[in-house]
Amino acid sequence: MGKISLKQVTKAFGDAEVIPPLDLDINEGEFVVFVGPSGCGKSTLLRLIAGLEDVSSGTIEIDGQNATEVPPAKRGLAMVFQSYALYPHMSVRKNIAFPLKMAKMDPAEQERRVTAAAKVLNLTDYLDRRPGQLSGGQRQRVAIGRAIVREPAAFLFDEPLSNLDAALRVNMRLEISELHQSLATTMIYVTHDQVEAMTMADKIVVLRAGRIEQVGTPLELYRTPANQFVAGFIGSPK
Ligand code: ADP
Ligand code: MG
Q: pTM above 0.90?
Protein backbone atom coordinates (compact mmCIF):
# COMPACT_ATOMS: atom_id res chain seq x y z
CA MET A 1 0.00 0.00 0.00
CA GLY A 2 1.13 3.52 -0.77
CA LYS A 3 3.10 3.05 -3.96
CA ILE A 4 2.64 6.10 -6.17
CA SER A 5 3.91 6.50 -9.73
CA LEU A 6 3.77 9.60 -11.89
CA LYS A 7 4.22 8.96 -15.59
CA GLN A 8 4.82 11.89 -17.92
CA VAL A 9 2.62 14.09 -15.75
CA THR A 10 2.24 17.70 -16.85
CA LYS A 11 0.30 20.64 -15.48
CA ALA A 12 -0.46 23.94 -17.18
CA PHE A 13 -2.45 26.86 -15.84
CA GLY A 14 -3.64 28.60 -19.00
CA ASP A 15 -0.53 29.10 -21.14
CA ALA A 16 1.87 28.60 -18.25
CA GLU A 17 3.30 25.09 -18.06
CA VAL A 18 4.08 24.78 -14.37
CA ILE A 19 5.05 21.09 -14.50
CA PRO A 20 6.78 19.88 -17.68
CA PRO A 21 6.61 16.11 -18.29
CA LEU A 22 7.62 14.51 -15.03
CA ASP A 23 8.24 10.90 -13.98
CA LEU A 24 8.52 9.89 -10.36
CA ASP A 25 8.19 6.66 -8.36
CA ILE A 26 7.40 6.70 -4.67
CA ASN A 27 7.77 3.36 -2.92
CA GLU A 28 5.61 1.80 -0.27
CA GLY A 29 6.35 3.21 3.17
CA GLU A 30 8.84 5.79 1.96
CA PHE A 31 9.20 9.25 3.48
CA VAL A 32 9.66 11.44 0.42
CA VAL A 33 10.36 15.16 0.66
CA PHE A 34 9.69 17.57 -2.20
CA VAL A 35 12.03 20.49 -1.72
CA GLY A 36 12.73 23.59 -3.79
CA PRO A 37 12.34 27.34 -3.81
CA SER A 38 9.00 29.10 -3.58
CA GLY A 39 6.99 28.84 -6.80
CA CYS A 40 8.82 25.76 -8.15
CA GLY A 41 5.65 23.66 -8.18
CA LYS A 42 5.82 21.66 -4.95
CA SER A 43 2.23 22.35 -3.91
CA THR A 44 0.96 21.83 -7.44
CA LEU A 45 2.63 18.43 -7.61
CA LEU A 46 1.17 17.41 -4.25
CA ARG A 47 -2.29 18.64 -5.28
CA LEU A 48 -2.06 16.64 -8.51
CA ILE A 49 -1.29 13.50 -6.49
CA ALA A 50 -4.13 14.29 -4.08
CA GLY A 51 -6.49 14.91 -6.99
CA LEU A 52 -7.20 18.47 -5.89
CA GLU A 53 -5.93 19.53 -9.32
CA ASP A 54 -6.37 17.61 -12.57
CA VAL A 55 -3.27 16.70 -14.57
CA SER A 56 -3.04 18.34 -17.99
CA SER A 57 -1.59 15.10 -19.35
CA GLY A 58 0.09 11.93 -18.13
CA THR A 59 -1.03 9.42 -15.51
CA ILE A 60 -0.86 8.96 -11.77
CA GLU A 61 -0.94 5.40 -10.48
CA ILE A 62 -1.66 4.53 -6.88
CA ASP A 63 -0.89 0.94 -5.92
CA GLY A 64 -0.87 -0.09 -9.54
CA GLN A 65 -4.27 1.42 -10.37
CA ASN A 66 -4.67 4.39 -12.68
CA ALA A 67 -5.94 7.09 -10.31
CA THR A 68 -5.82 9.99 -12.75
CA GLU A 69 -9.61 10.19 -13.01
CA VAL A 70 -10.34 9.10 -9.44
CA PRO A 71 -11.80 11.88 -7.24
CA PRO A 72 -9.71 13.00 -4.23
CA ALA A 73 -11.88 11.31 -1.59
CA LYS A 74 -11.53 7.96 -3.34
CA ARG A 75 -7.75 7.97 -3.81
CA GLY A 76 -7.10 6.62 -0.32
CA LEU A 77 -4.69 9.47 0.47
CA ALA A 78 -4.94 11.99 3.27
CA MET A 79 -3.73 15.55 2.98
CA VAL A 80 -2.62 17.15 6.24
CA PHE A 81 -3.43 20.81 6.30
CA GLN A 82 -1.98 23.40 8.60
CA SER A 83 -3.50 23.40 12.04
CA TYR A 84 -5.60 26.46 11.35
CA ALA A 85 -7.90 24.30 9.23
CA LEU A 86 -9.49 22.95 12.46
CA TYR A 87 -13.06 23.77 13.41
CA PRO A 88 -12.84 26.09 16.45
CA HIS A 89 -16.33 25.30 17.75
CA MET A 90 -15.82 21.53 17.77
CA SER A 91 -14.02 19.42 20.35
CA VAL A 92 -10.75 17.72 19.47
CA ARG A 93 -12.65 14.42 19.32
CA LYS A 94 -15.13 15.82 16.80
CA ASN A 95 -12.41 17.48 14.77
CA ILE A 96 -10.52 14.21 14.46
CA ALA A 97 -13.66 12.19 13.73
CA PHE A 98 -14.94 14.69 11.18
CA PRO A 99 -13.89 12.88 7.98
CA LEU A 100 -15.32 9.60 9.36
CA LYS A 101 -18.60 11.27 10.21
CA MET A 102 -18.77 12.70 6.70
CA ALA A 103 -18.22 9.17 5.37
CA LYS A 104 -21.09 7.98 7.63
CA MET A 105 -18.87 5.43 9.31
CA ASP A 106 -20.31 3.30 12.07
CA PRO A 107 -20.00 5.35 15.33
CA ALA A 108 -18.29 2.55 17.26
CA GLU A 109 -15.65 2.26 14.55
CA GLN A 110 -15.26 6.05 14.55
CA GLU A 111 -14.66 5.98 18.28
CA ARG A 112 -12.15 3.13 17.95
CA ARG A 113 -10.14 5.00 15.35
CA VAL A 114 -10.22 8.33 17.20
CA THR A 115 -9.07 6.63 20.40
CA ALA A 116 -6.22 4.89 18.58
CA ALA A 117 -5.11 8.09 16.81
CA ALA A 118 -5.26 10.10 20.04
CA LYS A 119 -3.05 7.53 21.70
CA VAL A 120 -0.41 7.67 18.95
CA LEU A 121 -0.47 11.48 19.06
CA ASN A 122 -0.54 11.90 22.84
CA LEU A 123 -3.89 13.65 22.67
CA THR A 124 -5.90 11.27 24.86
CA ASP A 125 -6.29 13.81 27.67
CA TYR A 126 -7.30 16.59 25.29
CA LEU A 127 -10.18 15.00 23.37
CA ASP A 128 -12.85 17.12 25.04
CA ARG A 129 -11.06 20.42 24.58
CA ARG A 130 -11.52 22.83 21.74
CA PRO A 131 -8.66 23.80 19.41
CA GLY A 132 -8.45 27.25 21.05
CA GLN A 133 -7.51 25.57 24.34
CA LEU A 134 -4.51 23.77 22.83
CA SER A 135 -0.91 24.71 22.10
CA GLY A 136 0.25 25.16 18.51
CA GLY A 137 1.91 21.76 18.52
CA GLN A 138 -1.19 20.06 19.88
CA ARG A 139 -3.32 21.73 17.24
CA GLN A 140 -0.98 20.48 14.55
CA ARG A 141 -1.29 16.98 16.01
CA VAL A 142 -5.09 17.21 15.83
CA ALA A 143 -4.76 18.11 12.15
CA ILE A 144 -2.59 15.01 11.70
CA GLY A 145 -5.07 12.92 13.72
CA ARG A 146 -7.76 13.82 11.25
CA ALA A 147 -5.63 12.24 8.55
CA ILE A 148 -4.64 9.16 10.59
CA VAL A 149 -8.22 8.07 11.28
CA ARG A 150 -8.81 7.66 7.58
CA GLU A 151 -6.10 4.98 7.55
CA PRO A 152 -4.77 6.30 4.25
CA ALA A 153 -2.34 4.57 1.88
CA ALA A 154 -0.24 7.75 2.06
CA PHE A 155 -0.10 11.04 3.93
CA LEU A 156 0.50 14.25 2.02
CA PHE A 157 1.91 17.21 3.96
CA ASP A 158 2.22 20.70 2.45
CA GLU A 159 4.57 22.76 4.62
CA PRO A 160 2.66 21.72 7.75
CA LEU A 161 5.04 23.45 10.14
CA SER A 162 5.51 26.77 8.39
CA ASN A 163 3.35 28.76 10.79
CA LEU A 164 4.88 27.29 13.96
CA ASP A 165 7.74 28.93 15.84
CA ALA A 166 11.29 27.57 15.45
CA ALA A 167 11.44 25.50 18.64
CA LEU A 168 8.08 23.90 18.00
CA ARG A 169 9.06 23.18 14.41
CA VAL A 170 12.03 21.11 15.56
CA ASN A 171 9.76 19.23 17.94
CA MET A 172 7.07 18.53 15.35
CA ARG A 173 9.68 17.42 12.84
CA LEU A 174 10.72 14.70 15.28
CA GLU A 175 7.13 13.78 16.02
CA ILE A 176 6.26 13.40 12.36
CA SER A 177 9.37 11.26 11.82
CA GLU A 178 8.39 9.08 14.78
CA LEU A 179 4.87 8.81 13.45
CA HIS A 180 6.29 7.62 10.14
CA GLN A 181 8.30 4.98 11.97
CA SER A 182 5.33 3.70 13.92
CA LEU A 183 2.78 3.75 11.07
CA ALA A 184 5.20 2.72 8.30
CA THR A 185 2.91 4.46 5.83
CA THR A 186 4.09 6.39 2.76
CA MET A 187 4.48 10.08 3.48
CA ILE A 188 5.07 12.88 0.99
CA TYR A 189 6.22 16.03 2.66
CA VAL A 190 6.59 19.40 0.94
CA THR A 191 8.94 22.01 2.30
CA HIS A 192 11.24 24.81 1.17
CA ASP A 193 13.39 24.14 4.25
CA GLN A 194 16.62 22.24 3.51
CA VAL A 195 17.05 21.20 7.13
CA GLU A 196 13.61 19.59 7.21
CA ALA A 197 14.41 17.80 3.96
CA MET A 198 17.82 16.55 5.11
CA THR A 199 16.66 15.38 8.53
CA MET A 200 13.31 13.78 7.68
CA ALA A 201 13.60 12.24 4.22
CA ASP A 202 14.31 8.71 3.06
CA LYS A 203 14.30 10.23 -0.41
CA ILE A 204 14.54 13.87 -1.46
CA VAL A 205 13.12 15.20 -4.71
CA VAL A 206 14.73 18.53 -5.59
CA LEU A 207 12.49 20.65 -7.78
CA ARG A 208 13.27 23.73 -9.79
CA ALA A 209 10.74 25.39 -12.08
CA GLY A 210 8.60 22.22 -12.10
CA ARG A 211 11.49 19.95 -13.11
CA ILE A 212 13.19 17.33 -11.00
CA GLU A 213 16.83 18.32 -10.62
CA GLN A 214 17.77 15.23 -8.61
CA VAL A 215 16.25 12.40 -6.60
CA GLY A 216 18.24 10.67 -3.89
CA THR A 217 18.83 10.02 -0.24
CA PRO A 218 19.99 13.00 1.84
CA LEU A 219 23.50 11.53 1.86
CA GLU A 220 23.57 11.00 -1.91
CA LEU A 221 22.48 14.56 -2.55
CA TYR A 222 25.01 15.88 -0.10
CA ARG A 223 27.90 13.80 -1.41
CA THR A 224 27.13 13.82 -5.11
CA PRO A 225 24.87 16.73 -6.00
CA ALA A 226 23.89 16.59 -9.68
CA ASN A 227 24.62 20.26 -10.25
CA GLN A 228 25.31 23.62 -8.65
CA PHE A 229 21.64 24.24 -7.97
CA VAL A 230 21.29 21.08 -5.89
CA ALA A 231 24.62 21.69 -4.18
CA GLY A 232 23.61 25.23 -3.29
CA PHE A 233 20.19 24.23 -2.15
CA ILE A 234 21.26 21.26 -0.05
CA GLY A 235 24.22 23.15 1.31
CA SER A 236 26.86 20.61 0.31
CA PRO A 237 30.40 21.97 -0.10
CA LYS A 238 30.73 21.09 -3.81
P1 ADP B 1 5.37 26.09 -4.50
O2 ADP B 1 4.40 25.30 -3.70
O3 ADP B 1 6.62 25.34 -4.84
O4 ADP B 1 5.70 27.41 -3.88
P5 ADP B 1 3.21 26.22 -6.41
O6 ADP B 1 2.98 24.82 -6.81
O7 ADP B 1 2.26 26.84 -5.46
O8 ADP B 1 4.71 26.42 -5.93
O9 ADP B 1 3.20 27.12 -7.73
C10 ADP B 1 3.95 26.80 -8.87
C11 ADP B 1 3.62 27.80 -9.97
O12 ADP B 1 2.29 27.61 -10.40
C13 ADP B 1 3.73 29.26 -9.54
O14 ADP B 1 4.25 30.01 -10.59
C15 ADP B 1 2.30 29.63 -9.27
O16 ADP B 1 2.08 30.99 -9.46
C17 ADP B 1 1.54 28.79 -10.28
N18 ADP B 1 0.19 28.42 -9.83
C19 ADP B 1 -0.11 27.62 -8.79
N20 ADP B 1 -1.45 27.46 -8.67
C21 ADP B 1 -2.00 28.17 -9.68
C22 ADP B 1 -3.34 28.40 -10.10
N23 ADP B 1 -4.39 27.85 -9.47
N24 ADP B 1 -3.52 29.20 -11.17
C25 ADP B 1 -2.48 29.75 -11.84
N26 ADP B 1 -1.20 29.56 -11.49
C27 ADP B 1 -0.95 28.80 -10.44
MG1 MG C 1 3.54 25.67 -1.85
A: yes
